[in-house]
Amino acid sequence: MCVYTLRSGCIAMLLRLPLLLSRFLHNGRLRLLFLALIVLLLGGILLNYRWQSDVQLCFIEREQTESASSGPLTDAAVPVPKILEDVLSTDPKPIPGRSIFFHETSCHRPKRRRQRHGQSPDLQYNMLQLTARQACAIESAALHNPNFQVFVLFAGPTYRHLSNSSQRQQPIIDAILSYKNVQLRQLNLWRYAAGTPIEEWLKDGRLFRSSYLFSHISDFLRFLTLYRYGGIYLDMDVVMLRSMEDVPPNFTGAESNTHLAAGVMSLAPTGFGHEIAESCLRDFQLHFDGSDWGNNGPGVITRVAQQICGTQDISLMLEDRKRCLGFKVFDRNAFYAVPWKHWRHFFEPQLLEQTLEHTKDSYLVHVWNKHSKQLAIKVGSSTAYGKYAEQHCPKAYAAAGEYF
């Protein structure tokens, strides 16, 4: 009886909707408000659709993109960009346990130009781009670790302008490629995950519904790369200050008294290190949260280390390889001597000497690009970041131009 009454009420309400709507639309102000809401709603849907389309094109299957690039061009005078080689199929390949990895997961696709009469539809390429600061991280790693291969992996099909074309970023690219141990490669997310514990999870699509998509793809790739090859993973907003070639593998660094960070990690390609990498992949998919920026990077390595070390107390993990079964947790001075809340210390001339002194025993510095990327420094200025760059990435620093 209750169900019947409820159903009858719903039917009656539906029958009255046309009448209610007609009365509503006869009010001029309400009609305008209603139309404005419809326009905003449709605009939001279109913008979201366009963003989703761009994202899909950034991470499209490589074979489709390569076949598209072989077609006619929009302008015969414009040369076809060259696609970067795939890391899985191109020599030299990463040497397990003897390679340093950076990942670039941003999408750098030009705006579509209007098609002219008689021309083919304009093709959009995800172009190779690096900032001077990213190049500094890469160069400093190559400079201080000449016996390691340094791989910069771009997520998705990535194209480079031909060497004879004049591009503003070319001097920066040339600066890092002057090091024989630097390799620029692309990867396909699905092929890269094939045969790993996270392959099936990736197909579910949860990663691409993340509110922090590019950041979480970066988190995803750092654990996957260490699972595939071992070696050292580094964020692109670091400057390496000395060699890490002789540092035993299987380590990360504490960022605070409560959390480890995922910006610097090393795992051996076999044995215990490989087991840790597998644990990280399983934790990533088990606890993935697309609405939480830090849960899938620092959160993963923190939770895995807590399981290995049998404690949530970071102070007990520090320097105690026996408690952590050989997994080393460096204190903050190793990689994060300047915490993110004090990121401006790298940019303030009056804090130059203090900051240099504070980081004199660090392996590298992390300059917290999320907060500092908008603050440029004049080349030659007396800032800690400028001094690091001048000494540890001289070619990228020189190629930056007036501002770094």
Question: Mind explaining what this structure looks like?
Answer:
This protein is an alpha/beta fold. Among the domains are: 29-58; 64-69 and 78-109 and 124-336, Spore Coat Polysaccharide Biosynthesis Protein SpsA, Chain A (Alpha-Beta Complex). Helices cover 43% and strands 12% of the residues. It is built from 16 helices and 11 strands. It has helices at 2-25, 28-58, 62-69, 132-144, 170-177, 189-193, 199-203, 213-229, 271-287, 298-309, 314-317, 332-335, 352-358, 369-372, 384-392, 394-399; strands at 82-83, 99-104, 149-155, 159-160, 182-187, 231-234, 238-240, 251-254, 260-267, 328-330, 364-366. A 7-stranded mixed beta sheet has the order 5-3-2-6-9-8-10, sandwiched between helices. A two-stranded antiparallel sheet has the order 1-4. A two-stranded antiparallel ribbon has the order 7-11. Helix 4 (132-144) links the parallel strand 2 (99-104) and strand 3 (149-155). Helix 4 (132-144) runs parallel beside helix 5, helix 8 (213-229) runs antiparallel to helix 9 (271-287) and helix 9 (271-287) crosses helix 10 (298-309). The radius of gyration is 26 Å and the shape is globular.
